[in-house]
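Lab channel / #folding
Pinned by the channel admin:
"Please post every new chain as: sequence first, then the structure tokens as a reply. Keep commentary short and put observations after the output so the thread stays searchable."

First post following the new format, from NK:
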Amino acid sequence: MPDEPVSVLERSATRVHGYRFALRVAERGRVLSVGDGVVWIEGLPSAAMEELLRTEDGSTALVFHLDRERIGAILLEQASGLRAGAAATLTGERLALGVGDALLGRMVDPLGAPLDGALPPVCAAQRRLDGPSPPIVAREFVKQPLITGSKVADTMIPIGRGQRQLLIGDNGTGKTTFALDVVLAQKGRGVSCVYVLIGQKRSTIASVTDTLRRLGALEYTTLVVAEATASPGLKYLAPYAGCAIAEAWMEAGRHALVVYDDLSTHARIYRELSLLLRRPPGREAYPGDVFYLHARLLERSTCLSAAQGGGSMTALPIVETEQGEIAAYIPTNLISITDGQIYFDRALFASGILPAIDVRRSVSRIGGKAQPEAIKHEAARMKLEYLQFLELETFSRFGSRLEAGLRARLARGRLLRNLLKQEPLSPLAPESQLAWMTAFNDGSLDGLEAEKLTAALRALTQGAARGAPELDAPREAWSSAVAGWLGTGPARGEA
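Reply from TO:
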């Protein structure tokens, strides 16, 4: 106790000794107008793009537009007392949020604030929302498969870890359900997932959250949510927040998957903010840099080299079309940015072919290099056979008589189409995929009625779950195992 006054005096002397008389200049701006999630401010000449500023009533905004006489900012947190004339100051900070495993199983907004009613997550690191994409020398070729659990995707439109695969189609054709299937398929595969919901209704958010929680996928998934009633600024930042969370896992040498649901809404939000800030409009009233908006986001998804840790971030952006028009402005932009697209067709959906994926319009430009060799071998002739069947089916509708060989090919094609149908939220393991593909190519499923076909597929799935050969095992081993599971071969007693 007697030493305490001495220590206080010593600290005071240190501060006095370090004091330097100098002119200190601080900028103090003034709010000119506020409305629709945008605030105009004058008197901050040193403001920089994407710098945070605060007003005297506690509101927070992000510098988004620089003009000669004033700046435009998008509101992130708006206090009830914000009005014209309020003082505003620069913080010198850039927008960042906490990242790490503390976010797994949580629902947060783009600023990292919890939306699930729990305490704020305690994150060990902070990361800026927007940053440069990895340079070319830090990247590696896509070599590892991302298992989607979908029969159509894993066989004919494979996706690799580090790929950017677009999900495109009209509203209500199953894009979100497919994305949820992919998230569910990552259970036990060492892939951390981020699901970004941009401007979605509260009922949709509740449905997605309940599905992930009920099926045990929330424990390795982070939900970044900017619902329809959120401010335009939060909805604009949502995909960048999700990307930053997944990017931290990638740079730590881990594998991540991020779903953007959806970027059509994100583009409309960006158009709204740009028009409010009086930027010149271009095609369909979008600003001229809308392509760069999504390019700088999706280019951050990649597969890093071993020297950089070997992590990967796979992106599944979703874009909505109108009346199947894939040549619209935003869809064509995203098609040119991504490494392929999976097209969901409304006619297929209406006819009960689920998932409603149109194989003819879908493509994966680099996923085939990551596909397991056994599945690639079985799928090679299967895809060609299916595409030929679709053309032949169209020709047969004219009512012409077909020879026996063509009728057999039609029957095989219809069988394959039935095999590719899949119940939602029921992803298949690679072993189950290879089992039904082997059975189809061997002709073991030819001529089966609907009930017997369902029973055969169930037997194949159960057999593969009990114990299947390795994926790279010789094909003879797989044919023998499949015959045993179906009860058509010498391995029947073993099954």
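NK: The first strand starts at residue 29 and ends at 35.
TO: also worth noting, The radius of gyration is 28 Å.
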